What we know:
The complex is a heterodimer of chains A (142) and B (174). Chain A is an alpha+beta fold. Chain A contains 6 helices and 3 strands, in the order H-H-E-H-H-E-E-H-H. Chain A has a 3-stranded antiparallel beta sheet with strand order 1-2-3. In chain A, strand 2 (100-107) and strand 3 form a beta hairpin. Chain A is elongated, with a radius of gyration of 18 Å. Helices cover 49% and strands 18% of the residues of chain B. Chain B is built from 8 helices and 7 strands; from the N terminus they run H-E-H-E-H-E-E-E-H-E-E-H-H-H-H. In chain B, strand 4 and strand 5 form a beta hairpin. Chain A binds chain B through residues 10, 12-14, 16-17, 21-22, 24-25, 27-29, 31-32, 34-36, 75-78, and chain B through 1, 26, 29-38, 80-81, 103-106, 112, 129, 132, 136, 139-140, 142.
Amino acid sequence: MDKKAETAKRKIRKELAGLSFTEKTRILESLRDRSLAFELVRVFLVPNPKDGIQDRDHVNTLQRESQKYLNSHLKGGPPNASRSALSGILSGWISGAGRKVRFEIQLDGESKGKEISSKEELDKLIGRDQTPAAFLRALAKP
Amino acid sequence: MKETLQAINHMQADGVIGKYAIGGAVGATLYLEPAATLDIDIFVVLPTAERSSLVSLTKIYDYLKAKGGKVTREYIEIGGWPIQFLPPANELEREAVASAVRATVEDVPTWVMSAEHLVAIALQTGRSKDHIRILQFLEQGVVSRKKLEDILQRHRLNSKWRQFQERYLEGTHG
């Protein structure tokens, strides 16, 4: 981050820190609601139908780990390695022939989703420069 | 959060809990910019010291369930916030509750750990996210160095503090 952006960020943090506890708890409530909403985003590892996956337990573990890192990535907060860990797992999975990754989001009771089958598509959603907001926008697109 | 704090204050007035203090991320919010969190950590002094913590925590949960609270794992949800009640696990946490500062949320009074105690507990806990929080406290200039050093000295955290300074603060302060 350049110096100007860093200074601006510090200024905003200082201003936020200076709010009353009541105002801050209202922000906490918005953040909590947003975090809960993010938990409605699901990731699925879709195998190649012709793939004779023998180790189903391993796939289930990968799926659970992916979901955990996805939740953490979407919640944001202090810098963490969740996006990178998620990208690592899903890139590894998708490199197998015919395998896909499906993301789903519940919006107003309706399920929307995106299925991807290449590393390039994955990078457009959770690549190094992709923010959680951009990811959610991409999922919500018709 | 108003409803949550009102319920806790009523519980205190009814003698189910003694003094309490908000800690963790919500406690830190009194001093720092708000950061996303899903629950509230409330450190409570239990009035029945001779009984086990487990029994007294059960009383808290029973009281709040009767008021409409919903129990999920170690949390009880009141006013939309999952709360974890934590009896102080050591002398530092007991002191943090005893010396908590008064704050208000929408005119509801409550108690929050002091900035210095939150930093000391974060240092003692020592996870990466705790270290990040300590840095935020220092950056905001809301910690009295003198008070913090006294606490660290009293609770034998000097060595951890030196390690923290060497790792994160070397060359950044005088």
